Amino acid sequence: MIVAPDLPILPCRIDGGIKLFELKAEPVAQELLPGIWMEGWGYNGSIPGPLIVVRTGDDVIIRVENRLPVPTSVHWHGLDVPNTMDGVPGIEPTPLIQPGQRYDYRFQIRNRPGTHMYHSHVDVVRQLSSGLGGMLVIMDPNEKGIAHDYVYMLQQFRLLGLSKGELKQGRYRIDPYSDGFNFFTMNGRCFPHVRPMIAKEGDKVRIRLGSIGMNVHPMHLHGHQFQLTAMDGNKLFPGSRPLMNTIGVASGETRDIEFVADNPGRWPFHCHIPHHNANNFTSQVGGMFTFIHY
């Protein structure tokens, strides 16, 4: 079963054999930590947006409604779609979605099963840094052996109104033009305000990671070695899967890792850059950090 901890899966309905998804780009207040809210832009009420799950061969319509005060688009990052559906207005023959308007992105899923993303491709400094992104996974209906399949989008934000080292409940706007980030998230939350991964001893676990932000995130798993099994939505051949315990995820990349839960405990999984493990440079563990428990 695929799960994006702390995020919903976007529902769809079948209309004439076509899977219809509805995605709303809109202002969002996201609770990073209890009582600490980030005011940004997201999809369907969350930053990042909901997980989209499809299969190879699906005919899909993703109906995007723009509730933002500015024009936007959606790019299907890593998907082989027609040029008119790729979501880069001004470069491609694909539309700019004006405020109050909507557009139907219609295409067939041609890629093999794998991990991908979606995000705005208009005024990207402002819109991506404000939160407009999400994960998209093409599932393999015939796959066997994976007991737990977890999906994470890694993001970073600069919140205004807090001094370095200060955590105070309230609502804070994002500064999308700053590269001095003070909050680092996995699926839109900071540790300890996260839902941990769970497993049973002997389970095979997959973790899918994606990033559209500025920083590279070296993600480290304690107590286990994992195999890198896919890069950018493309599976690696079994003989080409390195054994690792830290994997870097740069902007625009997705990475899939797999391991066997064979060392019971409560094991951290986190970005290894020190201040990415903190909430606004405080001394307690926070930021881009979660754990697996079994």
Count of alpha/pi helices: 1
Tell me roughly what share of residues is in helical segments.
under 10%
Strand-residue fraction?
35-45%
Note poorly predicted spans: none
**Radius of gyration, in angstroms, nearest whole number:** 19 Å
* Protein structure class: mainly beta
Determine the mean pLDDT: 98
Strand tally = 23
The coarse overall form would be globular
Encode the helix/strand succession as letters: EEEEEEEEEHEEEEEEEEEEEEEE
- Tell me the major beta sheet: 8 strands, mixed
* Amino- and carboxy-terminal Cα gap: 17 Å
Brief sketch in words of this structure:
This protein is an all-beta fold. It has one helix at residues 124-129; strands at 2-3, 12-15, 18-33, 36-43, 52-55, 59-66, 75-77, 102-108, 114-119, 133-139, 148-157, 170-173, 183-186, 197-198, 204-211, 217-221, 226-231, 234-235, 243-244, 246-249, 254-260, 266-271, 289-293.
What can you see in these coordinates?
- This protein is mainly beta and 294 residues long.
- The protein is built from one helix and 23 strands.
- The strands form four sheets. Strands 1, 11, 13, 15, 17, 18, 19 and 21 form an eight-stranded mixed β-sheet that branches. Strands 2, 3, 4, 6, 8 and 12 form a six-stranded mixed β-sheet that branches.
- A hairpin with a 2-residue loop joins strand 3 (18-33) and strand 4 (36-43).
Attribute tags:
294 residues, mainly beta, 8-stranded mixed β-sheet, 1 helix, 23 strands, globular
